[in-house]
Write a structure and sequence with these properties.
By secondary structure, the protein is α/β, with parallel strands linked by helices. Helices cover 42% and strands 14% of the residues. The chain has 22 helices and 17 strands. The strands form four sheets. The protein has a seven-stranded parallel sheet, sandwiched between helices. Helix 15 crosses helix 21 and helix 18 crosses helix 19. The longest helix has 19 residues. Bound molecules: adenosine-5'-diphosphate and zinc ion (ZN). Zinc ion binds next to helix 16 and helix 17.
Length: 519
């Protein structure tokens, strides 16, 4: 059957070869094996279920989280001459009725539905009356509560599947999944470990950058100005930020659109279309914008503030360069943004376990901003990507031409200070002790009596805090799982203290004050 699959690839899509992972996924589905496919954005996930759907008899049911996503996919298939449709709440009941009739008569190769559809007995009944080729979960991470976009309705499809009498092969597809999410999807859908196809997440055409200590609005205006006709997305955390930045750019004559959940559906649609059709060059938006947007020529994605975790960051940043051309992913970092993200987690209705997990993920995002290693590698490590490519050579850290200096002794000072303070305080307090601050809190804990008090007075408190963040990012210190990050020594800290492990840092990242006198 794989020959047929090859033929269809050429005949319908005009491609000669499969991309990595596609053939394996297709073969497994044709063998009736439930399959989980993990591929980066733009990796070609749609073909993975469409070709088996075309090869086999019957209708494929595709579960999709967004109406716009369904429409785009159906339009794409229809334009290839493939019988496809969607059934969702955007249709009148008469339209829905007609599509159900056509579905029962086997007129479609593909039908796209929202997960809620599985809650209606009439739909299950219909599925039981037709010949099914496969069931595909698009954006399968929505099924896991550990995913960054959990949708309870996705989860409730799982028990509904047991009501389907002749259950065909199930395909789950996603671009973003941590091990925890992969395990969760696998367990929920009972997919065998051997049937997980993970091509890795590397996107070679993307360059990752972190900008610190610059005026954000200035940076963006200059950046956009240098790239006149290039399409880009700027993500902010709040609607207010969208409005402010939108006004700022519009006043400067930039061709800009805005998108957030506070706008009417009409306004959002208009903005989206203008951006997709290149009438507007820049889109300023909250994370409400983007899922299911297939715009291939986005040349850059700027994050105006810290995203909540690496999963969302990589998914949003990954909307750049879907066409494979070189593109930038830039994160504008400032320490204050951390507070907003913490506040958002704190205010949310999640239970304590979930919150703890979110703080942990946020910390990994913060570490990304402090690491001195390759940013691409950092992200791939986060996802436990086993393909382990070389450092990218083009991110902020790879490109930094600065030399590295040995900071082992300084690290030892920090670590012993954290230890002496009982591993009960955050970076700010530790920095104060090392600086020898006269802060009242220091007195109340009698920290001025510690041997490490004032040990690094030659540095500014800010540099000391940065250095501590760097040690966290390097995995020497950890911040525990509490809301207030409490510094604790990791295993590798022992090695540093014993002088068995050295700490290298970009020269000049933390500086001793020039005027210090050592009397
Ligand atoms: P994903 O859903 O994984 O983000 P898509 O399925 O939308 O990716 O595919 C991304 C792009 O890659 C599409 O334009 C698609 O036509 C193209 N593509 C997919 N498979 C192949 C292939 N085997 N050869 C060439 N192009 C492909
Ligand atoms: Zn790099």
């Amino acid at each position: 059957m794989i020959e047929t699959a090859h033929q269809l690839l050429k005949e319908y899509y005009g491609f000669d070869t499969f991309r990595p992972g596609q053939q394996t996924v297709i073969e497994q589905l044709l063998n009736n094996e439930d399959t989980l496919a993990i591929m980066p954005t733009g990796g070609g996930k749609s073909l993975c279920y469409q070709i088996p759907g075309l090869t086999m008899d019957g209708t494929a049911v595709v579960i999709s989280p967004l109406i716009s996503l369904m429409k785009d996919q159906v339009d794409a298939l229809t334009s290839l001459g493939i019988a496809a449709t969607y059934i969702n709440s955007s249709l009148t009941s008469e339209e829905q009725r007609q599509r159900f009739i056509d579905l029962r008569e086997g007129r479609y190769k593909f039908v796209y539905v929202a997960p809620e559809r599985f809650e209606t007995p009439a739909f299950i009944e219909t599925l039981n009356s037709i010949n099914l080729s496969l069931i595909a979960f698009d954006e399968a991470h929505c099924i896991s509560q550990w995913g960054h976009d959990f949708r309870p309705s996705y989860r409730s499809v799982v028990p509904a599947l047991s009501n389907i009498i002749q259950l065909p092969a199930v395909a789950a597809l996603t671009a973003t999944a941590t091990n925890q999410v992969i395990e969760d999807i696998r367990r929920l859908l009972q997919i065998e470990t051997d049937h997980v196809v993970n091509t890795g997440f590397a996107r070679e055409n993307l360059s990752f950058h972190i900008i610190k200590g610059r005026d954000k609005k200035d940076f963006i205006s200059n950046y956009i100005f240098e790239r006149k006709q290039e399409s880009g997305i700027i993500y902010t955390t709040t609607r207010k930020q969208v409005e402010a930045l939108y006004n700022h750019l519009e006043n400067k004559g930039v061709s800009v659109a805005k998108y957030h959940a506070g706008l009417s559906e009409h306004e959002r649609k208009q903005a989206q279309t203008a951006f997709i059709q290149d009438e507007k060059t820049i889109m300023v938006a909250t994370n409400a914008f983007g899922m299911g947007i297939d715009k291939s020529n986005v040349r850059f994605v700027v994050h105006y503030a810290l995203p909540m975790n690496i999963e969302s960051y990589y998914q949003e940043a990954g909307r750049a360069g879907r066409d494979g051309e070189p593109s930038d992913c830039i994160l504008l970092f400032s320490g204050q943004d951390i507070q907003l993200q913490k506040f958002l987690i704190d205010q949310s209705l999640m239970d304590e376990d979930k919150k703890t997990n979110e703080y942990k993920k946020l910390q990994a995002m913060i570490n990304y901003c402090h690491t001195h290693n390759c940013l691409q590698t950092y992200i791939l490590d986060y996802f436990n990507d086993l393909s382990k490519p070389e450092d990218c050579g083009k991110c902020t850290n790879c490109q930094s031409t600065q030399d590295r200096e040995d900071m082992t002794k300084e690290a030892q000072m920090v670590l012993s200070c954290v230890k002496r303070m009982g591993e009960r305080f955050g970076a700010g307090m530790v920095a104060k002790v090392l600086k020898g601050s006269k802060d009242k809190k220091i007195k109340s804990f009698q920290f001025e009596k510690l041997t490490t008090y004032g040990l690094m007075s030659a540095y500014s408190e800010k540099d000391l805090t940065n250095f501590i963040h760097f040690l966290v990012a390097e995995g020497i210190l950890s911040t525990g799982e509490q809301r207030l990050p409490i510094l604790q020594l990791n295993k590798s800290a022992e090695a540093v203290l014993k002088g068995e492990k050295q700490i290298w840092m970009q020269t000049g990242s933390v500086k001793q004050a020039e005027s210090t006198n050592y009397e």
